[in-house]
Amino acid sequence: MTDMLSHTARDTSRGPVPGTAPRPRRGTPLPYALLVPAVLALAVALGYPLVRQVVLSMQDFGLAQQFGRPPEFVGAENYRQLVADGYLWRVTLRSIAFCLVNAVLTMAIGVGLALLMRHMSRGVRLLVQTGLLLAWAMPVVASLTVWQWLFDTQYGVVNYVLTGLGLDYEGHGWLLRPLSFFFVATVIVVWMSVPFVAFTVYAALTQLPEELVEAAEIDGAGATSRFRHVVLPTIRPVLLVVGLLQVIWDLRVFTQIYILQEAGGSARDTNLLGTYIYRLGIGGGEFGMSAAVAIFMLALTVVLTAPYVRAMLRQEGET
């Protein structure tokens, strides 16, 4: 017995057994070397603009600097002025509320459409997917032009339909009041974002094992219980990623708000952080202050997305 063990030990010390895959050697530099080009590209593409933005936020950079005058370094003075600016905090609260409302509505409608598509016939599902794809692929400016005509004060279809239903909406200006302005903006932003959520969640639902759903149904679980205890845990990683992206996109929304403001909305009463940064820098020539607000917006994005990132890391640790 002792001879057999010593013979086996000598065999294993010589190398791997023929026919078995060799163990990967630890500490090999090849994976890190392959990552170097991507890391350098990210550092150049993202690192330099971020550093330049931070430096600009600590300078007095206005129209004079555009014509060659050297900028004056003011340190944290721009940030001190922003903290004392009550209008910035109103814009921030307005942006957070708009972001959360749009993200929740987009996720709810998108997930609902994905669940409905799972139970549709092939022809109906193809028709719905084609409509979602066309809405998603439509250029932003072109779609906003259509929405402006729909909510137009004199010739808008929305006012015409509501007036035909007996409501007093003849000549109603949707963009003149902040509440109705953001209602129109929410409709447009959600309409543009729902297709992405619906397609992504539907793709995740196609990977759901039917055996699990059938077993839960045999055990007597209703539709709500099957969704909570079978479907939702399976697609939870996808929902976390999509939710994270929606919060980021809805917080930095710019084009829809800016074009609606140009169409008749009051900029001061409807500014979000994106349009406020633009009007402060391009419109007002205060590029240093505009950069400071941009850094503040970046920090706010990190704070709002931190719970999603923690949930994603926790989910990855459990798998």
Describe the structure in your own words.
This protein has 319 residues and is mainly α. It has a single domain (54-66, 73-318), classed as Orthogonal Bundle (MetI-like fold), CATH 1.10.3720.10. Helix content is 76%, strand content 1%. The protein has helices spanning 2-14, 30-57, 63-66, 77-83, 86-118, 122-137, 140-150, 157-164, 178-206, 210-218, 223-251, 255-262, 267-270, 273-283, 287-318; strands spanning 59-60, 72-73. A two-stranded antiparallel sheet has the order 1-2. Helix 7 crosses helix 12. The radius of gyration is 28 Å and the shape is flat.
Write the layout of secondary structure elements.
Blueprint: H1 2-14, H2 30-57, E1 59-60, H3 63-66, E2 72-73, H4 77-83, H5 86-118, H6 122-137, H7 140-150, H8 157-164, H9 178-206, H10 210-218, H11 223-251, H12 255-262, H13 267-270, H14 273-283, H15 287-318
Antiparallel strand pairs: 1-2
Which properties best describe this structure?
single chain; 319 residues; mainly alpha; MetI-like fold; two-stranded antiparallel sheet; 15 helices; 1% strand; flat; transport; MetI-like_sf; transmembrane helix
